[in-house]
Predict the 3D structure of the following.
Amino acid sequence: MIDQADNLRNLLNNTNRKDRESLDLSARVITVTSGKGGVGKTNFSVNLAIQFSKMNKKVVIIDADFGLANIEVIFGIMPRYSLANVLKGEKDIEDVLTDGPFGIKFISGGSGLKELTNITEKQMNYFINNFSYLDAIFDIIIIDTGAGISKSVVNFIKASDETIIVTTPEPTSITDAYALIKTIKEERGHMPKFKMVVNRVDDEEEGVEIYEKINRASGKFLNVQIEDLGCIPYDRYLVKAVKKQEPASMLYPNCSFTKALEKIGSKMMDMDYVETSQSVGIKGFMKRLVNIFNN
Ligand SMILES: Nc1ncnc2c1ncn2[C@@H]1O[C@H](COP(=O)(O)OP(=O)(O)OP(=O)(O)O)[C@@H](O)[C@H]1O
Ligand SMILES: [Mg+2]
């Protein structure tokens, strides 16, 4: 698997952009979302990316939370361009990649992903085709969405194959997570695989209890199964890392937050997910997204 990816990458380095695109590779696309805001999505996304990178995966994070400069704040870096520039045809996707730690890259969505409705077909094709490059270069693409049941968040989830819902033990966070799953279920069309992470727990027992509660309700009333990815304890080292604008996994590699992320990262690698070869990749994701926005 790794050998094959390496060979492809070597091949890519020796081929031009057009040839790359015709290779038609796909990356694993993981959407991270939540019903309620402020539950830890962005810190989860960034530190999960670091775990994957430690497993020799090429990872890019797309910040799809418009307006609030999320990932930029955690990495402490400011990108110059965003997907809005790609949508306007001003930049290619490789120009909007920003370097983060551990070889991770990130892309700011800017307003680029909110404006997928009022564009010409030519613009749309240019935009979608640009994503072939990300499929060819990256193994994993993590999309950090905003919170809540807004149209754009729902569309992102509908377009994805694998969605991680982050919740905390707070009752409002639990009910909002359930409401989000219900909304997705009620929309027609494609459904992603749902996975759940319970963040900021006091202990493992609390995490299991909350996962079971949500999974039971969504199984019974919505006929939706959710996979358990585990839980993350409340950790003041994470709070410290946020204040220092550096990922906790880098600053405090042995803290309980980092340890929990390590466990979740390996679990996700072991899990039977849509194999990369069968996955629609980020280009397929963007095609779906554009279709959803325009229907
Ligand atoms: N495991 C944890 N232990 C302690 N504090 C945490 C933990 N997870 C998150 N937090 C706190 O919650 C804050 C919000 O986290 P984060 O920005 O990742 O949430 P978010 O879901 O991305 O928010 P938004 O919905 O605004 O995008 C962090 O700055 C931190 O203070
Ligand atoms: Mg966030």
Notes: The chain is about 50% helix and 15% strand. Residues 34, 37-43, 65, 70, 147, 199-200, 232, 234-235, 238-239, 242, 257 surround adenosine-5'-triphosphate (ligand 1) (CB under 6 Å). The first strand starts at residue 28 and ends at 34.
